[in-house]
Amino acid sequence: MANLELYELQGCPYCAKVVDKLDELGLDYESHVVAGPKSERDEVERVSGQRGVPVLADEENGVEGMPESDDIVEYLEETYGDGAA
Ligand SMILES: N[C@@H](CCC(=O)N[C@@H](CS)C(=O)NCC(=O)O)C(=O)O
Q: Residue 66 and which of 2, 41, 76, 82 are 20 to 30 A apart at CA?
């Protein structure tokens, strides 16, 4: 089973898009709810090189911190969706 982690913010529509995809694919994940102020998101910066959320970590597949909701949704579909190898 995948060991996914999602850095997210309450009320963030980009995060909700990723959560919808995780739910659709039936994937469990550990949620890290980040602080509103970007200045307090040091962990997000450490894993992804920037301070925006959502950020996905999938260490089993070498993904330490992937930003950009569209990229994350595409990654999840390709890695865990019906067409996954
Ligand atoms: N294009 C980004 C936008 C994400 C975004 O704007 N996230 C907001 C929270 S809803 C945020 O963290 N903003 C701070 C920043 O982008 O540095 C995506 O689709 O992931």
A: 82
Where does ligand 1 bind, in terms of residues with CB under 6 Å? 9, 12, 14, 38, 51-54, 68-70
Asked if the structure places residue 85 within a domain, the reply is no
Any domain includes 63? yes
Say what the pTM is.
0.95
Q: Would you say 24 and 32 are in contact if contact means Cβ atoms under 8 Å apart?
A: no
pLDDT by residue, tens only, the chain of 85 residues: 679 999 999 999 999 999 999 999 999 999 999 999 999 999 999 999 999 999 999 999 999 999 999 999 999 999 999 877 6
Domain count within the chain: 1
From the alpha carbon of 67, which atom of ligand 1 is closest? 20
Which atom number of ligand 1 is nearest to the Cα of residue 70?
A: 19
CA–CA separation, 62 and 5 (whole Å): 13
